[in-house]
């Protein structure tokens, strides 16, 4: 399916989604977020796709929600339409792993979109920020919640209150991104990480996502119980038998997602 604001290609079980509004630094408008929700929904149901990589351009992952589209809206409009809620829910509902490959600006909604992904690989050119305060608003796609969980209250407050940008090195140091790579190698590294995940059991990677995401929602005791029961239940799968047999037989496992 052709999109107006995205370039989507599937190769070797990886669906690469590139945000493509170069003239607006990939600002997130209604069309782009609607298409993104649709592309991720399609990838979720496409058996050829095991992992999704979401990226932007060298200059910007995304410079935030589209200010020109938002500026004239009223309270009643944004409240009644629950602006972007369906689209962002569709992205976070995806059960397949999503890697954000971020170069350049990831600001406001762009930073929030990256944080909706399962992990972020950043180019050394990446700049993260929640500058909504400069526009007289707060983050609205989860930034005050997700950034605080990732980097802690002090740094999150600093980012949201001053609107300053965080460079890649600080983002890695503070736990916002999983790794930083030279900009030229960003896509190679992100695709290699996606390939590595694609080789695993898709059944087990869904279980990993469910368990790790519970860490954000549940008290420790409940989260550990959830994990333990998930561990137990995976003993009902062929992939558990295959994974452990392959280890003992000193060969590579052949997972069948069963
Ligand atoms: N929205 C619309 N257009 C944008 C945006 C944006 N967020 N960011 C950049 N653009 C456009 C510029 O207007 C410009 O267009 P034109 O060439 O037609 O004038 C073009 O992209 C290039 O931008 P610049 O000329 O400004 O490029 P610079 O390299 O000089 O600066 C910056 C790059 C620093 C990224 C600068 O563009 C900037 O500050 N952008 C805005 C960043 C920002 O404030 N982001 C937060 C937006 S608000 C938000 O994300 C809230 C999300 C929550 C919504 C929740 C709903 C419930």
Automatic annotation (TrEMBL):
SUPFAM superfamilies: ClpP/crotonase. Pfam families: ECH_1. Belongs to the enoyl-CoA hydratase/isomerase family. This is enoyl-CoA hydratase. The keyword tRNA-binding does not apply. CDD domains: crotonase-like (cd06558). It comes from the Bacteria. The keyword S-adenosyl-L-methionine does not apply. GO terms for biological process: fatty acid beta-oxidation. Keywords: Fatty acid metabolism, Lipid metabolism, Lyase. GO terms for molecular function: enoyl-CoA hydratase activity. Its EC number is 4.2.1.17. It is an enzyme of class 4 (lyase). Could possibly oxidize fatty acids using specific components. It catalyses: a 4-saturated-(3S)-3-hydroxyacyl-CoA = a (3E)-enoyl-CoA + H2O; a (3S)-3-hydroxyacyl-CoA = a (2E)-enoyl-CoA + H2O. It comes from Harenicola maris.
């Amino acid at each position: 399916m052709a999109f107006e604001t995205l370039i989507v290609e599937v190769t070797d079980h990886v669906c690469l989604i590139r945000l493509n509004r170069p003239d607006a630094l990939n600002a997130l408008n209604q069309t782009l977020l609607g298409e993104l929700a649709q592309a991720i929904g399609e990838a979720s149901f496409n058996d050829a796709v095991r992992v999704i990589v979401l990226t932007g351009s060298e200059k910007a992952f995304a410079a935030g929600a589209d200010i020109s589209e938002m500026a004239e809206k009223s309270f009643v409009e944004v409240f009644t339409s629950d602006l972007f809620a369906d689209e962002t829910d569709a992205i976070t509902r995806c059960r397949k792993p999503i890697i954000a490959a971020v170069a350049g600006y990831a600001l406001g909604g762009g930073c929030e979109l990256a944080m909706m992904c399962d992990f972020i690989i950043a180019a050394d050119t990446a700049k993260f920020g929640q500058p909504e305060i400069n526009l007289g608003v707060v983050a609205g796609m989860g930034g005050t919640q997700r950034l605080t969980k990732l980097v802690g209250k002090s740094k999150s407050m600093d980012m949201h209150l001053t609107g300053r940008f965080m460079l890649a090195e600080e983002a890695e140091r503070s736990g916002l991104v999983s790794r930083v790579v030279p900009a030229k190698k960003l896509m190679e590294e992100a695709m290699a990480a996606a390939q590595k995940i694609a080789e695993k059991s898709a059944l087990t990677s869904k279980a990993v996502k469910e368990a790790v995401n519970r860490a954000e929602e549940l008290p420790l005791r409940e989260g550990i119980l959830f994990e333990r029961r998930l561990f137990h239940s995976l003993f009902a799968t062929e992939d558990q038998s295959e994974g452990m047999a392959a280890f003992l037989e000193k060969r590579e496992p052949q997972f069948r997602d069963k």
